[in-house]
Amino acid sequence: MKLSTTQVLLAGAGLTAALPHMDSPRQRLLNGLDLPPKFGSSSKTETPGKAVPYTPEHRDPYDRAVDAIGEDLDPLPWRNGLGASVLGPWNPERSRENPDLVRPPSTDHGAIANMRWSFADSHIRIEEQEGGWTRQTTVRELGTSVELASVNMRLDSGAIRELHWHKEAEWAYVLDGEVRITALDYEGGNFIDDLKKGDLWYFPSGVPHSLQGLGENGTEFLLIFDSGSFSEESTFVLTDWLAHTPKSVIAENFNLAPEVFARLPKSEKYIFQGSQPGSIDEERPRGKEVKKSKYNFSHRMLDQEPKKTSGGEVRVTDSKNFPISKTVAAAHAIIEPGALREMHWHPIADEWSFFIRGRARVTIFAAEGMARTFNYGPGDVGIVPKNMGHFVENIGDEPVEMLEVFRSDEFRDFSLFQWMGETPQRMVVDTMFADDPENGKVFWDKVKDAHKDEIRHYDHN
C-alpha cells in the first residue's frame, strides 16, 4: 500500500514525539526552544522570576555555587547570557560532576594545570589469589601531585598484604573495617596493633611491615607516600626477593639445609588469603631476644577531640601529637551544608586532599591574575600547591568529609580572615574600600576580633 504524503508526515511526527531525548533540556536549547516549566520547577536554586542555571536567561553576578547533581541539572556553558549550546558529543554525567569546568565562575582566568583526579579513573589491580585489590594516584595520573602519591587498598577478612618495605615513608588512614599492622623498628623492636575506621599508621622509610584484614569484612584504607613518583610496583616484597636469591644463599643466611626452602613461592604473593589471626597477645613473638618497639606507629585520629567551628569540625594530626610521623601531617575536616573551609593558604607544603563524602567546589588562586575552580566528590583527589590561596565550599545537601595531607612534619595554614583582623584598620580599609568607606566599616566590624574559624557557616544565602 502506498502512503500519502500527509500520512508519512503524520507518522514521522508520531515517531519524533515518541523519542524522549528529542525533548531533553539540552536538545531543546540546541533547537533554540525555551525550557518548559517541568525542567526547572523542582530546582532549589530557582526562585520566582529567575531562570534555571545553565540557561541563556540565567543571571548571577555573584557566581554562586550550583549543585548540579543534587538539583538534577544539565550544566551547559552559559554564564550571564554569554556562551552557547553544545553541538558535539557530550557526557552529561561527567558535566554534572564538574559543573564549574563546564561553566566556570567569571573570576576564573588563566592557564592553571589540572588539580583534580578521581580514583574511579585509576586502574585497579586485582590479584589472581583471593583477597583484595589496589589502585593508585601518583604524578603519572595527576601531574601536579609531585610531593605525595597515594594507594587505595582493599583487603578482605584474613587477606594479607605480604611482608614488605618501601623507599618512601608510608602514612595511612583506615577508611573502613579493621586491620592488623606489624612492623620492625630501626632498633630491632617489633610492633603490632589492631586499627579501626579513622585510625592512622606511619612507617618511616625502609621499615618492614605487613597488613592483614580483620573482622567480618576486612578493611579498606588510603596509603600516602612522601614522593609523588612512588609506584606500588616498586615495593620491596619478601617473596619477590627470595625468588631472586639463590637457595644456597638463603640456606646459608638461616643456617638451614637448602631443602627447607624447596617450596618457597616462585614469585611475589603481594596480596593473598591468609589464615585468621588470633589476638595480639597470642600472636606476639616470644623468642629469647625478641623485644617490643618503644615507638608507636599508630594513632587514633578520629578519637581526638575535634575543634568545633561555626560550620563544622577539624582534627589535626602531625608530629606534635603523632611523633613518629616526621614527613606527613594531616587534617580531618567536616564541612556542614552551607559552610566553607575558609579562604586560606599553606606556606610550607602542597595540599593533597582526599574527599570521603559530600560535594565541594574549590577555587585556586595562583597569583598573576590566574584562578581556576574544580569540583570534588567521594573518592576524588585534589591538589593545591603551597602558598596558593583557596577555599573549600560545601555545595551539596550533606556534610563534606575530607582529608588535607601534607609532606611536612607540621600542619600550618594562614587564615585570610585572621590576617585582616591582625592588620591595622587603616591599611585594610585603604586597600579594599578606598571608594566605599561605609562598607569598609561594615567589613572591619566583622574582622576586627581576628577570630580564626577554619570552617565558617554562611547565613546570607
UniProtKB/TrEMBL annotation:
<feature type="binding site">
    <location>
        <position position="346"/>
    </location>
    <ligand>
        <name>Mn(2+) 2</name>
    </ligand>
</feature>
<feature type="binding site">
    <location>
        <position position="170"/>
    </location>
    <ligand>
        <name>Mn(2+) 1</name>
    </ligand>
</feature>
<feature type="binding site">
    <location>
        <position position="390"/>
    </location>
    <ligand>
        <name>Mn(2+) 2</name>
    </ligand>
</feature>
<keyword id="KW-0732">Signal</keyword>
<feature type="binding site">
    <location>
        <position position="164"/>
    </location>
    <ligand>
        <name>Mn(2+) 1</name>
    </ligand>
</feature>
<feature type="region of interest" description="Disordered">
    <location>
        <begin position="27"/>
        <end position="61"/>
    </location>
</feature>
<dbReference type="GO" id="GO:0033609">
    <property type="term" value="P:oxalate metabolic process"/>
</dbReference>
<feature type="binding site">
    <location>
        <position position="166"/>
    </location>
    <ligand>
        <name>Mn(2+) 1</name>
    </ligand>
</feature>
<dbReference type="InterPro" id="IPR051610">
    <property type="entry name" value="GPI/OXD"/>
</dbReference>
<feature type="active site" description="Proton donor">
    <location>
        <position position="404"/>
    </location>
</feature>
<dbReference type="Pfam" id="PF00190">
    <property type="entry name" value="Cupin_1"/>
</dbReference>
<feature type="region of interest" description="Disordered">
    <location>
        <begin position="85"/>
        <end position="107"/>
    </location>
</feature>
<feature type="domain" description="Cupin type-1">
    <location>
        <begin position="299"/>
        <end position="440"/>
    </location>
</feature>
<feature type="signal peptide">
    <location>
        <begin position="1"/>
        <end position="18"/>
    </location>
</feature>
<keyword id="KW-0464">Manganese</keyword>
<feature type="binding site">
    <location>
        <position position="351"/>
    </location>
    <ligand>
        <name>Mn(2+) 2</name>
    </ligand>
</feature>
<protein>
    <submittedName>
        <fullName>Oxalate decarboxylase-like protein</fullName>
    </submittedName>
</protein>
<feature type="binding site">
    <location>
        <position position="209"/>
    </location>
    <ligand>
        <name>Mn(2+) 1</name>
    </ligand>
</feature>
<feature type="binding site">
    <location>
        <position position="344"/>
    </location>
    <ligand>
        <name>Mn(2+) 2</name>
    </ligand>
</feature>
<dbReference type="InterPro" id="IPR014710">
    <property type="entry name" value="RmlC-like_jellyroll"/>
</dbReference>
<dbReference type="InterPro" id="IPR017774">
    <property type="entry name" value="Bicupin_oxalate_deCO2ase/Oxase"/>
</dbReference>
<dbReference type="InterPro" id="IPR006045">
    <property type="entry name" value="Cupin_1"/>
</dbReference>
<keyword id="KW-0479">Metal-binding</keyword>
<dbReference type="GO" id="GO:0046872">
    <property type="term" value="F:metal ion binding"/>
</dbReference>
<dbReference type="InterPro" id="IPR011051">
    <property type="entry name" value="RmlC_Cupin_sf"/>
</dbReference>
<feature type="domain" description="Cupin type-1">
    <location>
        <begin position="122"/>
        <end position="262"/>
    </location>
</feature>
